[in-house]
Write a structure and sequence with these properties.
The protein is of the alpha+beta class and 233 residues long. It contains eight helices and five strands. A hairpin with a 2-residue loop joins β2 and β3.
Length: 233
């Protein structure tokens, strides 16, 4: 401490401490804590939730600009960290396409971890290279990811696709209904009034008729974002 008292000398103190006590097993099980019990995917999910909570509660001002869209308005992703999807539309990798159950589980986990269209496209290419042309039920499963991403950007917490209808459940925060994301939803309803019903109550939601495929649901959500023309199926 006497030798390294000048400004910026902390690194030298750290190096001396490293020499005295040793580096230890930095990458081994002793340093990995409970991640080995939880599994990497679950650990990452818990970590992301903890970071989101800190950003929202303790560092709100610091990350305020991060939650705004290109127009400087609050985006839907500020209100939703994970969108859940319930559906009676079949979407899976059949046994005749991926024979190994362990392989199928690995593919499902990998799919759930994707975060961008580019990653999804690369994933599809690897599937085709290994197993051949993707069957329709597999394509339906892959379409779930763009649905989740679009719904999250629009501030939608839950998407229900059942009996040929789609129900979108919005974020609970009052601030969401003044956001740019909800404005996009209202614009879509205004131009597709006959097929849409806004429902008030304990959970505000939007009912959209004549949605019988995953691709149809994707088209509607992307139309809300203004990305493409609605092609309900």
């Amino acid at each position: 401490m006497e030798n390294f008292s000048d400004l910026g000398s902390g690194i030298y103190i750290a190096m001396q401490d490293l020499d005295i006590r040793g580096a230890g097993n930095m990458l081994g099980a002793e340093q990995s804590g409970f991640i080995t019990d939880l599994g990497y995917e679950t650990y990452q999910k818990i970590l992301n939730e903890a970071v989101a909570e800190l950003k929202e509660n303790e560092f709100t001002e610091l990350f305020a600009e991060e939650d705004k869209d290109e127009e400087g308005r609050i985006s839907g992703e500020k209100f939703v960290t994970e969108t859940n999807i319930e559906s009676d539309i079949q979407g899976f990798f059949p046994e005749e396409y991926v024979p190994s159950s362990g392989e199928r589980m690995s593919l499902y986990r990998e799919l759930d971890s994707l975060t961008s269209p580019k990653q999804l496209e690369d994933y599809k290419k690897r599937l085709i290279d290994r197993f051949g042309q993707i069957p329709p039920v597999g394509e339906s499963l892959l379409t779930v990811m763009p649905i989740k991403w679009a719904a999250q950007r629009l501030g939608i917490e839950k998407v229900v696709l059942k009996m040929g209808r789609m129900i979108l459940y919005f974020a609970l925060e009052d601030e969401y209904f003044q956001s740019r994301a909800f404005e996009k939803v209202l614009n879509y309803v205004g131009s597709h009034g006959r097929g849409c019903t806004l429902r008030d109550g304990e959970r505000k939601s939007l009912l959209i008729k004549n949605i019988s495929t995953m691709e149809g649901a994707r088209s509607v959500l992307e139309a809300m974002e203004g990305k493409k023309t609605d092609a309900q199926t």
